[in-house]
Design brief:
Chain lengths: 665, 104
């Protein structure tokens, strides 16, 4: 059974791919068939993932690979393969389960869209690409799926292609991630050049096994950092995070998919997958590449949390919270807590999908309004959305005990506190926790509390096809915490291949109180600052934010995303434009001369050849033809058509021959 | 007076020359055909004469060739006359001076 599932693990991504192709061949109005196919494909992938999950439960540290040769060149064979281990298995479960909820939600959310069929084709494609990424046992196959994920995100972010901002956001996402992928590809080539294989595990010869790692030598830091470039692009880490908030231009289910199950999870997953490359030669758990990972993560986490405070778009706040949480995961990976980072990734997948779908439900209920200042008082109009959203919000903020996000966040704080290199990241992360509580309180007060503001009069609760996925995800968010507690750290031990024991005494830890205090501080701060905006009433949508009132310049700085987009457009983009112009000018005024010079030489030769032809060769040919024709004309006059003349000539000829022979004899 | 080979050859040459003269000088196609028949008769006469005066005149080789030749000449005359009739139907003339469409 377990062998069968390893041999056929490729079914898991293949089924959504096949569903995607089938949906693409449907006519545009077959909404029901498209949705049914997509959901069926995703359900089948979920069932397969569950089958793949079972063998990893039975045996601690289960790892099975299936490799095959793609093609051979010379005496080198390029081999690909897939891999089943706990990391892959939990990712498969999370992606298919969250993906299925999002697919079902989309049926309601996209019901009125003209391009419903195309949307579901892209969704299935996205899911298939991501599933292919997590089962890869080869850095090359992973890279291929990685790029397919990038393509799918491009198609979906720019799904409303009639909106110029959506098209621009799609391009921005694609190009920004491409910058990181360039580094990833270089790292991949370097790794291949050193180790001669791109397979992760190959019975002792893979590049992540000790023999393969030994070949990397001093280059390992650079290879790790180049691969990390890809993760920076994909997971929206500073300085390549700019595409992720813009990706909000896509339909909300797409945002949920990008932020929870697919796309951004890929970067964290990549680092976790090739972690042996990062941690090779670690002294006390610290390597140069991991240190850089930590600091990038810290910068991202704190910066994004600050920016999130000043955003007004309900989805943009969530987008920056994703950036911030991904930074947190990177810190966790960097300080050595791979299991903690992956646990937070999984928990984040559930609650961020819940939050985005909740936001989608709010937007759907408010008829497309996304500005939180124009909402308000929705808790009475949309009770299901409100309660599930609150669960997601508390999980994101890290409220302990009942919400999965709280446990994983504590775990990350715990491993970060014990990082030997520096204790600064720990304090930064503590500040990040407070900020997360603050901006989520702000958002929820604006959206759900207070009086109804501008556009929320006609708000309505969403249909059950949208609320059911919300409820499912909310239950998952809460139930998931069972396997995360320190009392029974099942998931942690499952990922690190140790056996879990129930020890209730471990349930209460110092970090539990610490995070309780921090989250409480964040909530209190939020409620205190925004008490006028929500709890008390009479605020107009165009009134200044309380923080803007207190610190207008700082608020504007944060509202404009720390001017990073502007900085890029002044530097990188401007530089690209300038070099393009320079290249254009060089082309027109400098290289053109060479080209024209060569052209002139060609023309001279051509003219010469033409002259030789005209005057020398042509004359001879002409003369020959004239002579031939003249001769022919002359000869033809002898053909009189008079049969008796011919016979006479023959007779004379025969006579002449006779005379000649007689004379000879 | 016993006939000699020479006498036969003289007759044959005379026949051939008369035939050739007819072929080269007459304008009417049928007369040209007759001339050709005369030249053929001269050749047949030569065959028979040379056979008759040869040392081995027991087997009738020369006569046989002459008989075959006459049979073929009959066929040739039939084809030639048919051609002349076809030409006449087409051009309404049998004067070979006017049948000069194959000139260059």
């Amino acid at each position: 059974m377990s062998r069968w599932i390893v041999d056929h693990l490729w079914f898991v991504p293949a089924v959504p791919f096949a569903a995607s192709l089938a949906i693409l061949s449907l006519p545009n109005r077959r909404h029901r068939s498209a949705a049914a196919l997509a959901v069926a494909g995703q359900s089948a992938a979920l069932a397969m993932s569950f089958l793949a999950f079972l063998p990893t439960l039975q045996q601690s540290g289960f790892r099975a690979v299936q490799n095959f040769t793609w093609f051979t060149f010379g005496d080198h064979a390029l081999r690909l393969g897939w891999l089943l281990d706990p990391l892959t298995a939990v990712m498969l479960m999370m992606i298919t389960l969250v993906g299925l909820c999002i697919f079902i939600f989309s049926i309601g959310y996209m019901a009125d869209d003209k391009n419903f069929v195309r949307f579901f084709a892209y969704l299935s494609f996205f899911s298939g690409a991501m599933l292919g990424l997590v089962i890869s046992n080869s850095l090359l196959l992973l890279f291929i799926c990685w790029e397919l994920v990038g393509l799918a995100s491009y198609l979906l972010i720019g799904f409303w292609i009639q909106r110029p901002s959506a098209a621009a956001a799609a391009k921005k996402a694609f190009i920004t991630t491409r910058v990181g992928d360039m580094g990833f590809f270089l790292g991949l080539l370097w790794l291949y050049g050193r180790s001669g294989t791109l397979l992760f595990y190959d019975g002792g010869n893979g590049c992540l096994e000790s023999a393969g790692l030994a070949t990397l030598g001093a280059a390992v830091t650079f290879i790790a950092l180049l691969i990390f470039c890809g993760a920076v692009g994909k997971s929206g880490q500073f300085p390549l995070h700019v595409w992720l908030p813009d990706a909000m231009e896509g339909p909300t289910p797409v945002s949920a998919l990008i932020h929870a199950a697919t796309m951004v999870a890929a970067g964290v997953f990549l680092v976790a997958r090739v972690y042996p490359v990062f941690s090779l030669g670690a002294i006390n758990g610290v390597t140069p590449s991991l240190t850089i990972v930590v600091w990038i993560g810290v910068t991202t986490a704190l910066m994004a949390a600050l920016i999130a405070i000043a955003q007004a778009d309900i989805k943009r706040i969530l987008a920056y919270s994703t950036v911030s949480q991904l930074g947190l995961m990177m810190v966790s990976l960097g300080v050595g807590g791979v299991a903690a980072g992956m646990m937070h990734l999984l928990a984040h997948g559930f609650f961020k999908a819940l939050l985005f779908l909740g936001a989608g439900s709010v937007i759907h209920g408010c008829h497309g309004e996304q500005d939180i200042r124009k909402m308000g008082g929705l808790r009475r109009l949309m009770p299901v959305t409100f309660s599930t959203y609150a669960i997601g919000m508390m999980a994101l903020s890290g409220v302990p005990l009942f919400f999965s996000g709280g446990w994983t966040k504590e775990e990350i704080l715990h491993v970060t506190a014990h990082w030997p290199a520096s204790s600064l990241p720990y304090y930064f992360l503590l500040a990040g926790v407070v900020l997360t509580g603050l901006y989520m309180t702000r958002q929820i007060i604006y959206v759900f509390f207070g009086d109804r503001r501008a556009d929320s009069q006609q708000a309505h609760e969403s249909p059950s096809v949208m609320t059911l996925p919300l409820l499912t995800l909310a239950i998952c968010v809460v139930l998931f915490s069972i396997v995360l507690t320190p009392a029974w750290p099942w998931l942690h031990d499952y990922l690190t291949a140790t056996s879990a024991r129930v020890e209730l005494a471990h349930l209460v830890q110092p970090t539990l109180f610490l995070s309780l205090v921090l989250v409480g501080a964040g909530f209190t701060l939020g409620i205190w600052i925004y008490r006028k905006a929500g709890i008390q009433d009479r605020q107009r949508p165009d009134d200044a934010d309380p923080l803007e009132f207190a610190q207008p310049r700082l608020f504007r700085f944060l509202e404009n995303k720390m001017w990073i987009d502007e900085l890029y457009s002044r530097t990188v983009v401007a530089f690209s434009w300038a070099s393009a112009r320079l290249a254009d000018w060089m082309d027109r005024n400098f290289w053109d001369r060479f080209v024209r010079g060569f052209g002139a030489i060609g023309q001279i030769f051509g003219t010469f050849a033409a002259n030789v032809d005209e005057s020398g060769i042509n004359a001879g040919v002409d003369e020959t033809t004239v002579g031939t024709r003249g001769l022919g004309r002359l000869m033809s006059t002898r053909h009189s058509g008079q049969i008796q003349t011919y016979l006479g000539v023959i007779a004379i000829g025969v006579l002449a021959l006779l005379v000649f022979y007689a004379w000879l004899a | 007076m016993t006939p000699t080979l020479q006498a036969f050859l003289i007759v044959s040459v005379a026949l051939f020359s008369i035939g050739l003269l007819a072929v080269l000088s007459r304008r009417h196609a049928i007369f040209i055909l007759i001339g050709i028949e005369m030249m053929l008769a001269a050749a047949n006469l030569n065959f028979v004469a040379f056979w008759r005066f040869s040392p081995q005149s027991q087997s009738p080789t020369g006569v046989m060739i002459a008989i075959f030749s006459i049979a073929i000449a009959a066929a040739e005359a039939a084809v030639g006359l048919a051609l002349i009739i076809a030409v006449y139907r087409h051009y309404h003339t049998t004067n070979v001076d006017h049948l000069d469409q194959l000139k260059g």
